[in-house]
Amino acid sequence: MSPEVSRLAALAPQPPEARDLLAFDREHLWHPYSSMTAPGAVRQVESASGVRLRMRVDGEPVEVVDAMSSWWCAIHGYAVPELDAAAVEQLGRMSHVMFGGLTHEPAVRLGRQLVDLAPGPAAGEPGALEKVFFADSGSVSVEVAMKMAWQAHAAGGLTRTKFFTIRGGYHGDTFSPMSVTDPEGGMHAMYAGFLPRHVFADRPPAAGEPLDAWTTATTALFEEHADEIAAVIVEPVLQGAGGMHVYGPEAVRHLAALARAHGALVIFDEIATGLWRTGAPWAADHAGVTPDILCTGKALTGGYLTLAAVLTTAEVAARVDASPAGAMMHGPTFMANPLACAIASANLDLLASYDVAGTIERLSAGLRTGLAPAAGFRSVADVRVLGAVGVIELQDAVDVARVTAAALDRGVWVRPFRNLVYTMPPYVTSDDDLDTITRALVGAVEEVHGA
């Protein structure tokens, strides 16, 4: 939307129903990471299809390209025929049934697909990720993974209450995930006195930078606490909400080797990185490491419903069952919800139906080319791309409201944070729409923060 159109739109009367919706929203509805008493601006989305959101901006109906995949989950965009059909078919059978003492075809089918897709050895071979625990959300899956690790050690009479991780990470907003999220630079610093204290190594250097000093320091820190460490937990290769930091697979391999040398487990949080976002089915594939426990979520249902899964080995499952509890002590009400499982299964079928790796490489090339001009701006510290993730890192904190508005004026929805203006576009984004996204990001940064 041009500045002239934007000014004219601001003068147009807003439909009463839209005004009422926004007024109620402002007075009563809390949004993520926002103030209830002084809320920021929100825009009403009326519908979505493909990669486009139809919303109202200053009372004017507009259509914009979604650069965020709705926080990285709507990988095939919106109103996806195959996923719509799976939802309708499953609704004709049942939308939900408890998973305690019961099972159903959508859960079994999705479990089989996840086991087949998992990194590492095939089912039945040592070290295969072949046991599946369905959870409500990504954060809950990390809770489950951490509980699994603790119970696995309890089976041997060990008391290992610490987790080892790296600074700059983000693992979710519930309490156990918050405790392994960066305690100082992360979003949960205010809870520091309320959370367990785990062991944090420095963030690994960016991909391509020397690792020797980091490796030496990390080894010494781990060995100091080795008898206490239940597991290493990391987002492999790419840290998401902690700063979109890209680091090398050799650092992942080092962390996994430390864990295994000292009897600790390896947990990979692939909620953001899994299902081809980094260019491979799993970020673990870049490192050639099979974790003992893997968490997946976000893109699992293609953005339709909340669902996550925890995959682990037969060995870990046996150790959990040998703990004093005799079972995995977790069981969400909506565990393995049939509707979510059916849609997730259709989503994995859709991913299997085309060359996803080639698609991600096309997006990656377009992001590298399109975002490159920002690298020359004095306001920009770095421009980086990994798979279908493109990041413009600013020297200073981003002016979220102004950059968001500037991108909307250019026909794109983005949600910057900290000092990052970034995109994780849907995989179905065309070259033309990707060009629109990158031009909008570069243009918005130049307009608001300067070249």
Automatic annotation (TrEMBL):
Pfam families: Aminotran_3
InterPro entries named in the record: Aminotrans_3 (IPR005814), Aminotrans_3_PPA_site (IPR049704), BioA (IPR005815), PyrdxlP-dep_Trfase (IPR015424), PyrdxlP-dep_Trfase_major (IPR015421), PyrdxlP-dep_Trfase_small (IPR015422)
Catalysed reaction equations from the record: (8S)-8-amino-7-oxononanoate + S-adenosyl-L-methionine = S-adenosyl-4-methylsulfanyl-2-oxobutanoate + (7R,8S)-7,8-diammoniononanoate
Residues annotated to bind substrate: W71, Y170, K298, G331, R415
Modified residues (N6-(pyridoxal phosphate)lysine): K298
Positions of pyridoxal 5'-phosphate binding: G138, S139, D269, P332, T333
GO MF entries: adenosylmethionine-8-amino-7-oxononanoate transaminase activity; pyridoxal phosphate binding
Domain of life: Bacteria
Enzyme class: transferase
Residue(s) at site: Participates in the substrate recognition with KAPA and in a stacking interaction with the adenine ring of SAM: Y33
Cellular-component GO terms for this entry: cytoplasm
EC number: 2.6.1.62
Localization, UniProt: Cytoplasm
Main localization (coarse): cytoplasm
Pathway in which the depicted protein is active: Cofactor biosynthesis; biotin biosynthesis; 7,8-diaminononanoate from 8-amino-7-oxononanoate (SAM route): step 1/1
PANTHER family: ADENOSYLMETHIONINE-8-AMINO-7-OXONONANOATE AMINOTRANSFERASE
Function (record text): Catalyzes the transfer of the alpha-amino group from S-adenosyl-L-methionine (SAM) to 7-keto-8-aminopelargonic acid (KAPA) to form 7,8-diaminopelargonic acid (DAPA). It is the only aminotransferase known to utilize SAM as an amino donor.
Subunit structure: Homodimer.
Family affiliation: Belongs to the class-III pyridoxal-phosphate-dependent aminotransferase family. BioA subfamily.
Protein name in the entry: Adenosylmethionine-8-amino-7-oxononanoate aminotransferase
Organism field: Nocardioides pocheonensis
